[in-house]
Amino acid sequence: MSEQQVNVTRYERVREILNEAAKDSQADYGGIGRFWDRGAEQLKKAVIYDIGLIAPKPASSCCGHKADQSDCHRGAASALIRGLKGESPFDGSQFPRLPWGGIAVSPEDIEYISDWIDDGCPADDHASTIELSIQAEALPSGLSVREIAELNVAVAGTRSPSRPGELKQRVNLDCMTEPELKRLGDAFRHLYKLNKWPEDVRSYNNQALYHQNHCQHGWERFLPWHRAYLYEFEQDLQDYDPDIMLPYWDWVMPQYRPECAQKGWIIPKSFQAFLTVAQAEKLIAELKPAPSEEQKLAFLHMAKHRQRFTSQSLFFRYVYNVIGYRYLTPDPQNENRQRMIDALLASNPFFYPLRYPAEYGGETINQAIHYHYPSAEDIRQIMSLNNFRDFGGGSIYDSAFGFLDQNPHNTMHIWTGGMNPDYGEGASYDAHKLASSSRPAKALLGEKRNSMVRVGGRALHSRSDLYSQPQYGDMFSNLTASYDPVFWPIHVNVDRIWSEWQRLNPSSIPTDLDAILSPWNYTVQDMLDTARFGYEYMRCSYFIPVGLDAAVGRIISQPIPINEVTQGFRKAEIRLHWVPQLSRSCFVRAFLNQPGADAQTQLDGNPHYAGYLSIFGHGACYGGPGHCDTPPPKARDHDHRTRSHNAPRNHRIDVTECAKKLLASNVSELQITLVVIGADYAEDTDLLKLEGVSLNFLD
Predict the structure, then answer these.
(1) What does DSSP say about strands 168-171 and 535-538: parallel, antiparallel, or unpaired?
(2) Which terminus of the chain, N or C, has less C-beta within 10 A?
(3) How far is the C-alpha of 312 from the C-alpha of 662, rounded, in Å?
């Protein structure tokens, strides 16, 4: 039977599909670049961070016969196909969908590539050819051989995947990237959705209920109880996304202007109200009557420029007085107001309508509540305390609030809860009416001193509750605070301050270490060590994947932007992650902003030389086959032997002094260069393997 001949081979068509999807993306996939462009044989060998992209050829077909013609289901088993479909680990949990930085490949094209893999990844068969033998392509080198690796910061988040012996990192909320915030927000949305099943303990409301019914305040269990609570909630989030960690909100950073807090950011920008373009377009279509063309453009402009508002009341006043759309009132039954709240909630999972930060009827928190926003000096004084009773609270025999519990903790509840300016009769979004009818916060507080935050009869997190107009924000009360997502970064920061105080005062601990922290079975003693629960605190961290497939003699990162939020760090570290046992000794020199550094680079007086570490080599193996093999990351079930001496290790280099000096000279980026030096003081290019490198900034 004759066949129609075509000029483009199936492999070339695969390349076209992937190049069209990748567009202008500069992703380098750990140093191998566009792996699909290097020939069919090399594509079959391509590895991204220990993940082979093409599944091995099966020994037999799916029918049990020798697989000499078609590798049945080989395509479906390949990481390349899973990656194109956005399946684990390319679902955002570890890596983004393939191709990185591009657009999604259509299901039809994915099936085409999968069929090509099933047929053995032929290099030169044409699209019309039914059967061709595979012709190997002779390329001069493999994809994973690199003596000098120039590497990007991880595109799937800035922190390394957790390995045994590595801690996950709780980072500064204001240092998180948009992809990281989206992943965290998706996990929160997942818990919100579970509220549809009231008996599901994983639901957000049931997690919040723990605090409502069991929270400990005013004595020594305040800090350990909340540490347990944060851990439990974090585990709930990790059931959805294993790499999620709760961030902390450092309230005394310069952007919050503690000396005049009502003129600062008020709350983190990631927790403020804003509209996405998609939600703005949906809202415009739903508003009745429809906005004018000019008003539509104003809504879209607000969304495109991600204009943010610290509360719903400020958002509605902007819509009413600036955009000029006036078909809304503070009435909870007003349908346009409800539509706008729906749009704000859909745009940002961290927005909470019943939150009125820094709003006290035109007065400051000092004037209305007689509290002041916490300052760096407050924290310094608290950190100078040298006993747990003063710092964290007294025992049952000598009970007292700890100073950390009073201020800043209590203050931040009051600050973020605030007083609803639209509560009560006569409320209006009209700026002119508001100016003529506002009353001092003290008068309002005096009138309703005993009402405070209402709890009974509410269906918390229901739409009817989120549309309501309460007198105070939910953070104003211990009974409702945990329903507002801003509760979590505030309490994570309290825990961070405690962990730092523990470092300075390791022998100062609560009195009753055996007390059970209800409703869980943790004791106070259990909660004294954060490492036991698998986390540490980090202002921010930038992970550079390298890969264990080949040794590398010199590592050069791409420049890493260091923003103002990061620059107030206390300590900077370069970490080498998951380094297998080395057969020879070496040392690794670290340079910042000197990409040309090598074994001969001058060290004395060099402002770019950051430090070094030495690694003691294992030597030649003296055992039988497998004796010196790298053990698997996780031991078998019930294998309780001590860790293998060949287990990979993690290494650290303190680069604080070098980093601070460079950043003080108006540098806004840091670039890492690591040079591996052997015993002969020459570069050793075939020794060091590692999973990755990270640049870390600690408070």
Answers:
(1) parallel
(2) N
(3) 42
* Residue 191: strand pairing partners: none
- DSSP letters along 151-185, please? EPPPTT-SSPPP-TT--EEEEBGGG--HHHHHHHH
Whether the full predicted model's pTM is greater than 0.85, yes or no, is no
| Upper half-sphere CA count for residue 589 (Cβ side, 13 Å) | 22
Rounded Cα distance between 413 and 203, Å, is 23
Cβ neighbour number for residue 91 with a 10 Å cutoff: 15
Residue carrying structure tokens 């927000």: 185
Tell me the Ramachandran region of residue 370: left when phi exceeds 0, alpha when psi lies from -120 to 50, beta otherwise: left
**Predicted confidence (pLDDT) per residue in 388-409, tens digit:** 999 999 999 988 999 999 999 9
What are the tokens at 112? Answer: 């085409």
Strands, sheet with 586-592, edge to edge from the N-terminal-most edge strand: 148-151, 554-557, 672-677, 586-592, 609-615
Mean pLDDT for 538-565 is: 90
Specify the CATH number of the domain 147-162+539-636+643-698.
2.60.120
The stretch 652-680 carries a mean pLDDT of 95
Per-domain boundaries in the chain: 10-58+69-119, 147-162+539-636+643-698, 172-221+232-269+372-432+479-522, 273-347
Residue whose entry in the numeric block shows the structure tokens 């909100």:
249
Residue with the two structure tokens 């650290």: 652
Query: CATH classification of 172-221+232-269+372-432+479-522 is 1.10.10.10, yes or no?
Result: no
Terminal Cα distance for the chain, rounded: 74
Calculate helix-pair angle for 487-504, 376-383, nearest 10 degrees. 40
Checking DSSP bridges between strand 148-151 and strand 554-557, what pairing results, if any? parallel
pLDDT tens, residue by residue, 497-507: 999 999 999 99
